[in-house]
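Hey all, quick one. A colleague (J.T.) asked me to put the zinc ion job into the tracker so the inputs and the structure tokens live in one place instead of scattered across chat threads. No bug as far as I know, just bookkeeping. Sequence used:
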Amino acid sequence: MHELPVIEKILKVALDHAVKHRVKRVLAIHLEVGELSDLEDQWMQHYFDHLSEGGRAEKARLVIERIPARLQCTQCGEIFPFAAASDESNVCPVCVTGDCRLIAGKGYFIKNLEVL
Ligand SMILES: [Zn+2]
């Protein structure tokens, strides 16, 4: 069910874009979704088909690309891949401060729209 509010936002962005640029139809929406996100592709498309009914983005295809999770060290700026299920993955491999934050892999991002 958590896909629903996300899809509402994505649809709104697509429709705003369609109105602003006088687009007749939105054919596809390219999304980047972080690998740590629990959004499921088939549910996203399911909700999208339902919510987009009758509008300019009706039945647009969601093209979902999974983005690997990455951490960045707040001390030295090193960027490294997040290894799931390991607490040690939060430790910077260069300076070993352990003070790292997630910079990619959790949210979603609208990359572009295919329109007519
Ligand atoms: Zn570091």
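Adding what we noticed when we looked at it: Residues 73, 75-76, 78, 92, 94-95, 97 surround zinc ion (CB under 6 Å). The radius of gyration is 18 Å.
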